[in-house]
Amino acid sequence: MTSLRAATVADAEALGGLHVDVWDDAYTGLMPERLLEERRAALPERVERWREILAARAQAPDAPVVWLAEDASGLVGFASALPARDDDPALPGLELTALYVRARCWGTGLGHRLLEAAVGDRAAYLWVLAGNERATGFYERHGFVLDGAVDDSDDHGRHLRMVRR
Questions:
Q1: Relative to the CA of 140, which of 88, 99, 113, 124 has its CA 20 to 30 Å away?
Q2: What's a Pfam family this protein contains (predicted)?
Q3: Cβ distance 6 to 66 under 8 Å?
């Protein structure tokens, strides 16, 4: 059985490892391998970054939650949403900033459960890596549509914006 819960600072190490693993699952073949290798090599920094994020959120009672999915083997997914970071008044005020599950959990409904926890039925937007047809299809099934916006500023690749009104 997979359960969902809010992340705490004590989860930083496991969450950092999960974050690196799910990037490998999701992006191998979609972005240069060296970028994935660099992320894996920087795992201690990723763990520390998660520790900082979770500690800051713990200090703010109404801060958005990082949702974790956990089964008997440990963490298997996570999701988070934040107030919109893009300066575009036409966009919804909520951005889905992360939604990842381990490849072995794809197609189980876990992604849907995490999306519901992080966003529910609210209007939101997100950025998806161009060519990630699996993710794009998932978000389309949940009411998101490509709006034509493109971001080429990231060395991870081209990102496409999807919006759900």
A1: 88
A2: Acetyltransf_1
A3: yes
